[in-house]
Design goal:
Layout: E1 29-37, H1 44-59, E2 63-69, H2 76-84, E3 90-94, H3 101-110, E4 114-119, H4 130-139, E5 144-148, E6 155-156, H5 161-177, H6 179-182, E7 193-196, H7 212-219, E8 225-229, E9 231-232, H8 244-268, H9 274-299, H10 311-334, H11 336-339, H12 345-376, H13 381-404
Parallel strand pairs: 1-2, 1-4, 2-3, 5-8, 6-9
Antiparallel strand pairs: 4-7, 5-7
Helix pairs in contact: 1-2, 5-8, 7-8, 9-10, 10-12, 12-13
The chain binds guanosine-5'-diphosphate-alpha-D-mannose and manganese (II) ion.
């Protein structure tokens, strides 16, 4: 049994509400960083050393680190407490009656004295050095700043195809269920961010599962958002706690935030970009003309080319030429201002590939909706097709705006 002179912090209880700065019971400071941990005994020591070395230099005694451990079987809390002996800015909470990443972070923020509150994972997959850039954005006036894998300088070191697909799929689902929350940042799945305490103080929080960033974006008083690119690192020790359960919790959380969506939209003034949508629709119409023209040129024996190719082959080429047409016009016209901020050829190619993927997903959705309306609701085939085209045009527009031609407004 290890005897520590440093005591565990009391675990806050009751409603998940972060107190205003002038109501905190602890010594106020500038920045409080919370580390949620579960079975990170082999990571937490190195993590704390690296953080303290970095923050001591940049913020001297104006910061604190709070480890919130859910009574890990590998006694992570004890290892953290041992480290705290040497690191006076580190404090530890051991939760024995509650469990879950998002609520652990909120409990940590409730116990914190910081004007700025943040969260970082305890397994070194979020590089501590990025903290200084995040704090720099807060100092520059942002209310909320998130470390993103999907902006310039961002990426994922080694994630299998399935995990990438699941992560992007989750984002896509979020853009459909709670667009005004999930669509506010390029990497809503990121667990590495910070915000001004005043943006969340006094708000009753009620997250589910992992996504504390969505809870803040959906319920917080957040106007100015900034993003910083970072590369998600490979885990050195231990394993991820993400299971299918987290995906179920995520959907449940989205539905809860959606019901508040209307309130947060009003609060966060996110007008629907009607002008840009009309341009997108117009370009879509030009694509139909291109599609028809190319189909005629390739398939009709009477066409000047006289190729008379098979219908399927001609249709596939016609669709791809139409997609290329739509992409170029959208890049040069509809999203000109956004494309202008991502000028490299690599970024252009990435946008074109994403545009293709989103259009192909749209096509699948189109066939699904058409069949649903025709077979299930008995709607006339042509009316059903028209409705499907309208719905998918909205889909293509919104997903391309949020996942493809995206730059974070405040940046
Ligand atoms: N207190 C507490 N309670 N901590 C937890 C719990 C819990 O129930 N579950 C996980 N943690 C801690 C882990 O110990 C780790 O420090 C951090 O939360 C992240 O958990 P991981 O299990 O390592 O998540 P991941 O690496 O698969 O996913 C992370 O990165 C993704 C990409 O940014 C998470 O941050 C995801 O939210 C994020 O999407
Ligand atoms: Mn991790």
């Amino acid at each position: 049994m290890v005897l520590n002179s440093v005591q565990l912090l009391e675990n806050p209880s009751g409603a998940l509400v972060i107190p205003e700065l002038d109501a905190v019971m602890v010594q106020p400071c500038y920045f409080s960083l919370v580390i949620p941990t579960f079975n990170e005994s082999r990571n937490i020591g190195a993590m704390l050393q690296r953080l303290v070395a970095l923050l001591d230099e940049a913020y001297a005694d104006r910061y604190e680190i709070i480890v919130v451990d859910d009574d890990s079987p590998d006694r992570t809390w004890e290892v953290a407490l041992g480290a705290a002996e040497q690191l006076p800015r580190v404090r530890v909470i051991r939760r024995q009656t509650e469990r879950g990443l998002a609520t652990a972070v909120i409990r940590g923020w409730q116990a914190a004295g910081g004007e700025v509150i943040g969260v970082i994972d305890g397994d070194l997959q979020h590089p501590p050095e990025v903290l200084l850039q995040l704090l720099g954005e807060i100092d520059a006036g942002a209310d909320f700043v998130i470390a993103s894998r999907h902006v310039e300088g961002g990426g994922i070191s080694e994630w299998g195809f399935v995990r990438r697909l699941l992560s992007r799929g989750a984002q896509l689902l979020g853009l459909v269920i709670a667009p005004t929350v999930v669509g506010r940042v390029s990497d809503p799945m990121s667990g590495y961010f910070m915000l001004r305490r005043r943006a969340l103080a006094g708000v009753e929080l009620n997250p589910k599962g992992y996504k504390i960033s969505l809870e803040a974006l959906g319920r917080g008083r957040i106007d100015r958002i900034a993003e910083v690119g970072y590369v998600f690192q490979e885990r050195q020790a231990g394993e991820s706690k993400v299971t299918a359960r987290q995906y179920v919790d995520y959907i449940h959380h989205l539905l809860k935030l959606r019901s508040r969506g209307r309130v947060s939209r009003m609060r966060n003034q996110i007008p629907f970009p009607i002008g840009r949508f009309l341009r997108f629709g117009f370009v879509g119409l030009s694509g139909v003309v291109v599609d028809m023209a190319v189909l005629y040129l390739l398939h009709s024996a009477a066409s000047p080319l006289g190729l008379a190719w098979g219908l399927t082959r001609s249709k596939i080429i016609a669709s791809e030429v139409a997609i290329l047409n739509n992409f170029c016009w959208n890049d040069r016209w509809t999203f000109k201002d956004l494309a202008g901020q991502q000028k490299s050829v690599g970024q252009w190619v990435k946008r074109f590939v994403k545009f293709n993927l989103i259009c192909l997903l749209g096509l699948t959705l189109n066939v699904l909706i058409l069949n649903l309306l025709f077979n299930l609701f008995g709607i006339n085939a042509y009316v059903a097709n028209l409705l499907a085209i309208v719905i998918v045009t909205f889909w293509n527009f919104w997903i391309n705006l949020k996942l493809n031609w995206r730059v974070t407004s405040s940046k």
